């Protein structure tokens, strides 16, 4: 799944690097400047359950192929939007890349489900697959910006190119992924009920961690480029900040698996929250370029650690036949917070708003950290399969 993740990041990194800037250029009013960026999260949220049901019916492989085609359409529509100067076509294109993102978020589940003995390592390896793409993708976005007469049109065409490659690669995934199903009806009845599953402290801690890291990261990533330009750092600095952010999101993947093996998922989530706290503090304290870049980099690293640890906690809370009762709900909760963070960031895309956003992130860290710690202490250390009561008929 790591190559699939890399292809997804290649495409999405271009959108993440440019959409805030292009949206600001094309928006009819400043209030709508972050809408195209926010629609990426909206598209992902709106299709999360659809992806889960399709996985249940078709398996991972065919579902991933179908949704990779959305990236092709997204790139073509966004390129045409830039060519004709249409803000609303750009919104349609970014919404479609969100649909693709909804499917790619299941890559880590597919990896974890095929690596039962090393779930955390599988999740972090998939995320690490995006490192090369995170390093190269944003630079491709800016390097190809002027290859065509209309600035950034060629950049968005690259999204379509990577989408085509993703379609071809996912079609060749191992057969076992084609047979695996996420929905319980497709694999037969059995397993614990949703009520029992969702009363597990370890599951609640995992979802809370991933949701918090998602809302903090999406808010700062959405507001960052426009706020950076408002601080006087310019488009080049804003694009570089997103590039640093993308590196922070995926670079830790190569070492996080080993760290998790040594200190555990719970400790890695705590470190991630601490880094998110540092990011918020940097945004709250200064508008200097070093503080801006520090905030964008550390929010990316913090997201990676908290998201990896939280995802590993989630996947440890269910058996194979129960995944359809956990995965889509967990993704919907996380996706909802992504939308909240991204849409809310529209009001924070200014100098004063950036400071306020930083303060909000700091305050949220002081609320989330003790709550997740308390949930983790209450978590039952017994294996997931040990509990057999309240099995659905």
Structure overview:
The protein is mostly helical and 393 residues long. It has a single domain, classed as MFS general substrate transporter like domains (Growth Hormone, Chain: A). It is 78% helix and 0% strand. Helix 12 (201-230) runs parallel beside helix 15 (265-285). It is globular and about 60 Å long. Mean pLDDT is 81; it is low at 182-188 and 382-393.
Short note summarizing the structure:
The chain has 393 residues and is mostly helical. It is built from 18 helices and no strands.
Mean pLDDT: 81
Indicate the percent of residues in helices: over 70%
The structural class is: mainly alpha
Strand residue percentage: under 5%
Q: Identify the CATH homologous superfamily.
A: MFS general substrate transporter like domains
SSE ordering: HHHHHHHHHHHHHHHHHH
User: N- to C-terminal separation?
Assistant: 34 Å
Shape: globular
Could you tell me the radius of gyration in angstroms? 20 Å
Number of domains: 1
SSE topology sketch:
Layout: H1 2-26, H2 35-58, H3 60-84, H4 87-104, H5 107-113, H6 119-128, H7 131-143, H8 153-170, H9 175-179, H10 184-187, H11 194-197, H12 201-230, H13 234-250, H14 253-263, H15 265-285, H16 289-315, H17 327-344, H18 351-378
Helix pairs in contact: 1-3, 1-4, 1-6, 1-7, 1-8, 1-12, 1-13, 2-3, 2-4, 2-17, 3-4, 3-8, 5-6, 6-14, 6-16, 7-8, 7-13, 12-13, 12-15, 12-16, 12-17, 12-18, 13-16, 14-15, 15-16, 15-18
């Amino acid at each position: 799944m790591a190559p699939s993740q890399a292809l997804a990041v290649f495409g999405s990194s271009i959108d993440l690097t440019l959409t805030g800037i292009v949206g600001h250029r094309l928006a009819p009013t400043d209030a709508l400047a972050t809408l195209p960026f926010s629609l990426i999260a909206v598209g992902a949220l709106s299709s999360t359950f659809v992806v889960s049901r399709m996985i249940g019916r078709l398996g991972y492989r065919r579902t991933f192929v179908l949704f990779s085609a959305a990236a092709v359409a997204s790139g073509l529509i966004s390129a045409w939007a830039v060519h004709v100067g249409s803000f609303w076509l750009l919104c349609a294109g970014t919404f479609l890349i969100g649909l693709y993102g909804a499917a790619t978020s299941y890559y880590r589940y597919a990896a974890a489900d095929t690596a039962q003995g090393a779930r955390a390592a599988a999740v972090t390896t998939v995320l690490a697959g995006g490192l090369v793409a995170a390093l190269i993708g944003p630079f491709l976005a800016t390097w190809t910006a002027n290859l065509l007469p209309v600035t950034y049109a060629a950049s968005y065409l690259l999204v379509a190119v990577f989408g085509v490659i993703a379609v071809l690669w996912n079609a060749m995934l191992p057969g076992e992924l084609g047979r695996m199903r996420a929905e319980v009806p497709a694999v037969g009845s059995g397993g614990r009920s949703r009520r029992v599953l969702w009363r597990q402290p370890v599951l609640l801690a995992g979802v809370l961690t991933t949701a918090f890291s998602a809302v903090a990261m999406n808010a700062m990533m959405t507001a960052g480029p426009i706020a950076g330009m408002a601080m006087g750092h310019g488009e080049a600095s804003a694009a570089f900040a997103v590039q640093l952010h993308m590196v922070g999101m995926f670079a830790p993947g190569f070492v996080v698996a080993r760290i998790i093996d040594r200190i555990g998922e719970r400790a890695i989530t705590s470190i991630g929250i601490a880094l998110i706290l540092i990011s918020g503090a940097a945004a709250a304290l200064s508008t200097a370029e070093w503080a801006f870049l520090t905030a964008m980099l550390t929010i990316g690293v913090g997201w990676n650690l908290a998201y990896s640890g939280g995802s590993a906690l989630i996947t440890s809370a269910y058996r194979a036949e129960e995944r359809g009762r956990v995965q889509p709900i967990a993704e919907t909760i996380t996706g909802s917070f992504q939308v909240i963070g991204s849409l809310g960031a529209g009001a924070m895309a200014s100098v004063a708003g950036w400071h306020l956003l930083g303060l909000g992130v700091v305050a949220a860290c002081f609320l989330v950290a003790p709550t997740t710690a308390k949930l983790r202490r209450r978590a039952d250390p017994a294996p997931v399969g040990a509990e057999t009561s309240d099995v659905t008929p």
